[in-house]
Amino acid sequence: MAVVMSQDDMRAHLAQGDLLTLREALADLHPADLANLVGGLPPSEAAKLMRALSPAQQGKVFGYFGPRFQIAMARHIARPDFARIVTDMSHDERADLWKALSPDQRATLLPALAQAEREDIRRLAAYPEGTAGAAMTSDYATLAPDMTVAEAIAHLRAEAPDAETIYTAYVIDADRKLLGVISLRDLILTDERRSISDLMMLNAASGRVDEPLREIAERIATYDVHALPILTDGERLVGIVTIDDALDIGREAGAATLARFGATGALQGDDLDMRGSTLGRIFRVRLLWLALLSVFGVVTAGYIAGQEALLAEVLILAAFVAPIIDMGGNTGSQSATLVIRAMALGQLRLQARDMWFVIRREMPVLLGLGLVVASLMATLAGVGQAITPQVLWVIWLTMLVVTVTGGVLGAVLPFAAKRLGTDPAAMSAPLITSIMDLVGVVIYFAIAWALLGPVAGAS
Amino acid sequence: MAVVMSQDDMRAHLAQGDLLTLREALADLHPADLANLVGGLPPSEAAKLMRALSPAQQGKVFGYFGPRFQIAMARHIARPDFARIVTDMSHDERADLWKALSPDQRATLLPALAQAEREDIRRLAAYPEGTAGAAMTSDYATLAPDMTVAEAIAHLRAEAPDAETIYTAYVIDADRKLLGVISLRDLILTDERRSISDLMMLNAASGRVDEPLREIAERIATYDVHALPILTDGERLVGIVTIDDALDIGREAGAATLARFGATGALQGDDLDMRGSTLGRIFRVRLLWLALLSVFGVVTAGYIAGQEALLAEVLILAAFVAPIIDMGGNTGSQSATLVIRAMALGQLRLQARDMWFVIRREMPVLLGLGLVVASLMATLAGVGQAITPQVLWVIWLTMLVVTVTGGVLGAVLPFAAKRLGTDPAAMSAPLITSIMDLVGVVIYFAIAWALLGPVAGAS
After folding, report:
1. Cα A134 from Cα A98, distance rounded (Å)
2. ipTM given for this complex
3. Is B376 an interface residue toward A (CB < 8 Å)?
4. A7-126 has which fold?
5. pLDDT digits (tens, 9 = 90+) for A305-343
C-alpha cells in the first residue's frame, strides 16, 4: 500500500537507467498499486519502468491497463519480453488484448507465443463481446470422479492454479462433461480416503458460453459462489467466470445503466466514458440523441405556434409552458428510474403481472403528487402574477393530468424498451422529458381551449 | 437449480401438514432457490414451510430475506426455533436483523441466544449503517505467527470456518494486532514445516471500521482479494468484509447512483425502491423533489410573464421556449452523466486538475454539438413556420449559447455536489433541467431583446 518512492524520484532513477534501485523500491508493492504508478507515465517511460519489475510482477501489472495503453506500451517493449508478459497475463485479459491488436501486431506476436497460448487466445477471442465466453478464463482446476481426496489435493498442488481459481475444482469425465463441483474447503475438512464422486456437489449453478455477462454476474451473486463453470451446449466445461470478474461486470453494468439513462449510451458497442472515449465518438453519440430530441422539440414548438389564436388572447398561458412540460418530464423520469432500478436489481421482470403491479403502486402516489404539486403551483402563480381564476384552474388541472400521465408513461416505457429487446435504461431521462413536452402542451392547450375557449371566442 | 415441485403442490402439502414429503423434495435445492420459493408465500405459510427444511438450511435461507420479511415470519416461529435460526445466520446478516427488531422483539430473543452470539450481535449492530463495521462479519480464521504450515492447516480444519472465510487467514499477535495475511492456497502449495511468519504477506490491504462501504468494496475490487480485514484505530483486527459482500455493495451503490440521478434518492437513509419502500415514503421523497422543482418552474414562468412586451409583439417566440429550455437540460444531463459515471468508477476525483480536464474535454464537444443542433433547429423551424430571419437568428444563437452553458453547468455541478459532501448523483437530471430552464429563458430573452428589441420598440 505504502508508496515507497515519489513519482519524480522514480522518473529521475528511470532517466539514469538505475533499474536496480527501482526494482528494490517496488518489490513489495501490490500489482494494483504498481499499475497505478506505471499508468501515470507516458507509454515509453512506462515500458522502461516495466523492466525494473520482476518477471512475475510484469504480467500481473500489465493486465491492469486498458487495451489502448497496453498497445501503446507494447511498441516500446522488445518482442520476446512482450511475449513473456502476454504469456503471464490472466487468460481473459490476454484475450481482450488480442481483440484490440491490429492484424499486423497479431502477426508479430503470434510466433513468439507457445502453441497452447495461441490456441487459448484464439478460442477465447472468438466469443462475442459481452458474453460469458468472452470473459471466462481457461485457467481452472479439474478433477476426475474416481480420485480420492488425498489424490485430489496432490493433483491441485501439482497444478498449482491461480489464487482466484484454486478454491473450486470441477469434476469432469473423459469428454470434459461437468459431473460436479467441489470446494477446496471440503477437500481440506474431509477424510483423505473418501472419493471425489461421493463428495462433489451435483447440479451446481452454471452458465452457457453465449449468455450475457450481466446474467452470469447476477448468478454468481445469487448463489454466492467464487466462480461459475461455463458450459457449451453439450454440457462440456470450457471455462469459468470468477467472482472477481463478476465484481467488475456489476460495476460496468451499473455504469452502463447510468450512461443510457443520461442519454450518453451508444445504441451499439461501449457506452461513453469521459476518460476513455475519443472526442469524435463522444460528439457523435451525444449528437445522435440531441438531434433526435431537437426534432421532438420542433414538433412541440410547431404545436404551440398553432395555438396563436389562444395565445394572442391569453398571453400569460405562454409563461406556464415551461413549468408544465417540466413537471411531466420530472415525474416521468422518477417513475422510469424506479422501474429501471428494480429491473436492474432483478425485482421486476418483463411480464404483464409486474407491469400491473407497478401501475397499481404508481397510481395513488401520482394522484397524490399531482394534487399537491398542482395546488402548490397554482397558489404560487396566483400570488406572484395577476392571473384570472379561470387561467389558474387551467394550470391546476393541467398540472394534475400531466403529473399522472408523465408518471404512467415513465413507468411503462422501460417495459416497452425491454419488450423491444433493448436496455430499459435506453428510455433515457431526456427522451422521456421530450416525449412529455409534446404530450404536456397538447394536454395544456386542450384544457385551455375547453375552459377558456368561449372567453377567447367571445372577445 | 431445478425446481422439484410447483408452488401449488407445495402449498397443498403444506396445508396437509405433510412436511416429510416437502423435506425430501427440497433437500437438494440451493438456499438461494429455496429463499425464492419461500419468499413468494405469505409470512405465516413461509414460517410453516421453514419447518420442512433441515436445520442447516433454515439459517442460510433465512439470511436471504429482507429484515421486514424476516420479522413478519418470526412472529410465526417458536422462540427456540427462531433462536437457533438466528444463531446459524451469517454474522453480518444477523446484525442487520437485530437492528430491524423492536425493543420488545429483542428482549424476547436475547435470553434464547448464547452469550457469544449476544456479544457479537451487540458489537456489530453498534456500527452506523453504511460503514465497514456494519457490514463486516466476525466469522474468520486467525493464525499465530509462530505456527508451522502443518499446524496452521490443522488449526483451520479444527475451526472449520465458512466457505466464504476459510480461504484467507489472518495472522495476529496476542493483542489481535494484524501482522500479516496468508491464503489457503499458499498453505497448500508450501512445505509443511515452514513458519507462518516467513510466508505471510505483510502490508496487506485493509480497511477501517468507520470507512464508507463503497470504498471498502472498491478496495476489494482493486486488490483482487477475497476479503478485506477491518481494523480499529489501534490496528486491531475486528472483522472482515468478504468479496460476496462487495458484490452486493457494488450493486446497491450502482442502484443508489441511478436513484439519485433520477430524483428518487433520499437526502438521508435508503433510496427509494419500487418493491421495498412504503407508498408513504415514495410519496414524501418524490414530493420533496417535485415541489422543489416546481418552485424553480414558477420562477421561470414569472420571468417569461415579465417579457410580455416582447411576446405580445413577436408571439412566435413563445413557441420556442420549450425546445430551447429542453436543449440546455439535455446537454446538461449528458455532461453530468459522464462526470458522475467517471466519479463512480474512480476515474475522476474532487480536485481542480480533474475539473479542468473535464471542461477542456467538454468545450470542443459542446461547441460542435451547439453549432449542429442550432443549425438543425433553425432550419426545421424555418421550413415549418412563417418566421422572420431575425427570429431565426435569435433561435440559432440561443440554442448555441444554451447548449454550451448547459453542458458546462452539467459538468461542474457534480464537482460542486461532491465538494459539499453529497453524492455527485444528487445533481439529478430533473434538477439540472430545472436550473437550465431558468438560465435558458434568461439567455433567450436577452438575445431576443438585443436582436429584436429595436424592431419591437419601433412598432
Report:
1. 12
2. 0.76
3. yes
4. MgtE N-terminal fold (1.25.60)
5. 888 888 888 888 888 888 888 889 999 999 999 999 888
